[in-house]
Amino acid sequence: MADAPKANAVVSQSGGPTGVINASLVGVIEQVHKQPNIRNLYGAVHAVSGIVKEDFIDLKKIPAGTLELVAASPSSALGSSRDKPDKAYCEKILGVFKKHDIRYFFYIGGNDSANTCFIINNMARDAGYELRAFHVPKTIDNDLLVTDHCPGFGTAAKFVACAVMGDDLDNRALPGVKVDVIMGRHAGFLTAASALGRQRGDDGPHLVYVPERKISMEKFLADVEAVYKKLNRCVIAVSEGISAPDGKTWAEKLAETAEKDAHGNVQLSGTGALADFLAGEIKAKLKIKRVRADTFGYLQRSFAGLQSEVDKAEARQCGIEAVKLSSTAANGSVAMKRIGTAKYGVEYFRTELANVAEKTKSLAAEYINTEGNGITAAFVDYALPLTGGLPKTEYLGNYPRIKI
Amino acid sequence: MADAPKANAVVSQSGGPTGVINASLVGVIEQVHKQPNIRNLYGAVHAVSGIVKEDFIDLKKIPAGTLELVAASPSSALGSSRDKPDKAYCEKILGVFKKHDIRYFFYIGGNDSANTCFIINNMARDAGYELRAFHVPKTIDNDLLVTDHCPGFGTAAKFVACAVMGDDLDNRALPGVKVDVIMGRHAGFLTAASALGRQRGDDGPHLVYVPERKISMEKFLADVEAVYKKLNRCVIAVSEGISAPDGKTWAEKLAETAEKDAHGNVQLSGTGALADFLAGEIKAKLKIKRVRADTFGYLQRSFAGLQSEVDKAEARQCGIEAVKLSSTAANGSVAMKRIGTAKYGVEYFRTELANVAEKTKSLAAEYINTEGNGITAAFVDYALPLTGGLPKTEYLGNYPRIKI
After folding, report:
1. Were both Cys, which of A58, A191, B45, B309 would link to B55 (CB 3.0–4.6 Å)?
2. Can you say whether the dihedral through the CA atoms of B274, A188, A157, B206 is positive or negative?
3. Residues A241 and A292 in one domain
4. A171 in a domain, yes or no?
């Protein structure tokens, strides 16, 4: 391995924002200040599209106080993009890198971003241009391979857990059936997080449906009816990506005009159709009067002022580690390994870009109950530490009655 | 005024839960402990329906530590009810009061609850039964008369403001049009709260529509187009209760099967139809590609762990004041008056039940801009202190670019 070149660096943020992707950005910036081999750090505005347009911010000039506000802010402070660069696009990027002696590329994003790093890194190698490309993981879906979990998930999980905790208390006060539709096209981690705040034996969510298990309308309604008969109420967490036994998602079945993003994913967020459909089915078929539905939508990834402190610290450290690795390795993706049993902790390591690029992880079978309508204690053990802790609540309606 | 009778008391919570209605309950309980004339404090489970069923919890037995958890929890810890008692129902309530020597009634709720207090109080007086009925205000809509503002609003306003702050940052990262539908059938306070977190000149929400101003689809689309042309993006806060120039709400126009609650209100929450409709119109008529919509739904009133500390403290004090007043007055509703100019503060006073019962307040004209599509600085001055403060954020995409 040659010595780390004295050259410039680019950092940018890609894909859907998260609550802590800015903490990773700040981690990159603070570590760059400590590594004199990196001369300038250019922040590309709106990800790869900013690179090809040479739309850069001089990130070494941002004061430390501002950086702390950036790290505390949701969404991508440099702007994002849904562009999925093809070969020609990547060649343009490499052209800009060559033009400005940019030999370090830190890309904060999901598996598509890891793939972009991989492609550009290979292109540079083939062209004999030394480029060190590093992927910093982020996603609220928690679906990246290799890493134990992904920065962004803990904060989104905290939001979802707090939302459903409150929703369950609301449903106790005014009983009925409540359907909550939660983000996650293919992986059920975030929907499963709805159960992390359960404290009492009869706390909701009482039913949890994830994309990893197909569900028929008959089974869904039978589940709801059984809970409702027992508790006189029912809180249901449903992933936007749940599918029917025929393999089609329930949202696809509903969507009259399916909008697709540049990655070919059907657009499910930003619509209340699935939630309203499920509520309508319950009302019509089970003759239950009070049925309500909410779709949590973009609040799950962008709510201001509600970071998981654990997630924030890890996201920042992932940014720091990427820059550190760049002085000894030619490329890679930062990953986390869980350490310790008594006390939660992680250690950081490098994995190959190809191990992360374009691949996704699903909820492990051990995290889903055998009926496919709930999650297990093993999932709570896995995910609860990532939220940084959840508030405690009390409900008096279960307390013993007085005979007067 | 006769001396305060030595007798029992009932407290309960009515209508839609809020984030701090439990703080009011705890205020009542803690003050009852200090007033020996109140022998027992019975918590009626599920409001008036719990009174007629004599479904009571002995609230003096609840440990102090538990009470603090109750005060920190969203939703109604005693359960709630949408029952609107008629004369026969109120006679049953009075019968239970007489049977158990209950001469104090503390009812935490909105204008319907104030009316129930009023009716039962008059009934008792006519029957020659000494009863002291007090209303403790709560509503996320902030639409009660007399009081400067209402416990429950500040916390809901904080949620809405934080949601739209994050949403606006998200919309900067991935530009397009975003529609957020916010609770409030007749009063626009909560929708107006979407603007409380604005920090930068081009921060969203860029358009705010409240029920107090009618809006045609043509004007709505023209507004959106104008903002989009200027900023290449647009964040819009819309009340669920916005209406068209013909006087019908936009939601009514959409609702195929309007569900009504016991108070005759059309059910608008729990459905994404209005948001999806508005997004569809923008997409179709303005040919804008990226249009998203969220309906904030029940999270606005029930999210766990996100109280406004100011709101929580005031809600608790309103409960305390109701019990204090009961030793010197025959009935009343607790209200707040804003004091001080340099530093925000309130004082508490008694108003007649009839002043609050069944009446509602709307956003003052001075809080809405002349175009009817935004809110004024006067509203921010009024409402921001009630949130207890909002997080600061940073976005780098506006920073000057480097020429390299």
Report:
1. B45
2. negative
3. yes
4. yes
User: Which residue of A80, A81, A393 is in closest CB contact with B69?
Assistant: A393
CB B176, CB B228: distance < 8 Å: no
How far, CA to CA in Å, does B254 sit from each of A275, A287, B240, B258, B281? 17, 23, 12, 9, 13
Inter-chain CB proximity A173 and B401 less than 8 Å: no
B169–A73: do the CB atoms touch at under 8 Å? yes
Do B87 and B116 meet the contact criterion of CB atoms below 8 Å apart?
A: no
pLDDT at B277: 87
Q: Are residues B81 and B160 in the same domain?
A: no
Could you give phi then psi for residue A372, rounded to 5 degrees? 75, 20
Shared-domain flag, residues A245 and A349: no
How far apart CA B396 and CA B344 sit, in angstroms, is 33
Total domain count, chain B: 2
- Kindly state whether residue B90 falls inside one of the protein's structural domains: yes
B285: CB partners within 8 A, 6+ apart: B221
Q: What share of chain B is helix, strand, coil (3-state, %, to 5)?
A: 40, 20, 40
Same domain for A91 and A147, yes or no, is yes
Give dist(CA B172, CA B31) in Å, integer. 49
Could you tell me if residue B271 is inside a domain? yes
Check which CATH number belongs to the domain holding A139 and give it.
Answer: 3.40.50.450
- Cα torsion for A278, A284, A290, A295, to the nearest 10°? 10
pLDDT band at A390 (very low <50, low <70, confident <90, very high): very high
Q: Mark which of A317, A337, A356 sits at the end of a domain.
A: A356
Could B174 and A301 be called an inter-chain contact, meaning their C-beta atoms sit closer than 8 Å? Answer: no
Closest residue by Cα to residue B82 from B46, B111, B44: B46
Subunit contact B394:A304, Cβ cutoff 8 A: no
Asked whether residue B234 falls in the same domain as residue B85, the answer is no
Whether the pLDDT of residue A258 is over 80: the answer is no
Given B112, B141, B168, B203, the catalytic residue: B141
Describe the crossing of helices B309-325 and B64-72 by its angle, rounded to 10 degrees.
120
Which amino acid is present at B280? Answer: G
Two tokens, residue B57: 């919890």
Looking up residue B223, the CATH number of its domain turns out to be 3.40.50.460
> Is A301 in a helix, a strand, or coil?
helix
pLDDT tens digits along B242-288? 999 999 988 888 764 444 444 444 444 347 889 988 998 999 999 99
Residues of B in contact with A170 (CB under 8 A): 17, 74-75, 298, 301-302
Of A56, A271, A402, the CB nearest to B272: A271
One domain, residues A203 and A317: no
Contacts of B163 in chain A (CB under 8 A): 299, 303-304
Residue of A nearest to B14 (CA): A173
**Residue A282 domain boundaries:** 154-304+362-387
Inter-residue contact A377 to A145 (CB < 8 Å): no
Q: Which residues of B touch A294 (CB under 8 A)?
A: 270, 295, 297-299
Residue A141 is among the residues annotated as catalytic for this protein = yes
For A149-193, write each residue's pLDDT tens digit: 999 999 999 999 999 999 999 999 999 999 999 999 899 999 999
Please say if the pLDDT value at position A135 is more than 60: yes
| Phi and psi torsions of B54, nearest 5° | 50, 45
Q: Which stretch of DSSP H or E encloses residue B92?
A: helix B87-99
Residues A170 and A218 in one domain: yes
Considering the domain architecture, whether residues B160 and B178 belong to the same structural domain is answered as yes
Spatial distance between the Cα atoms of A78 and B173, rounded to a whole number of angstroms: 7
Q: For B74, name the nearest residue in chain A, comparing CA atoms only.
A: A166
Q: Does residue B392 sit within a domain?
A: no
Nearest chain B residue to A82, by CA: B174
Of B76, B279, B394, the CB nearest to A270: B279
Contact assessment for residue A153 and residue A139, using Cβ atoms and an 8 Å cutoff: yes
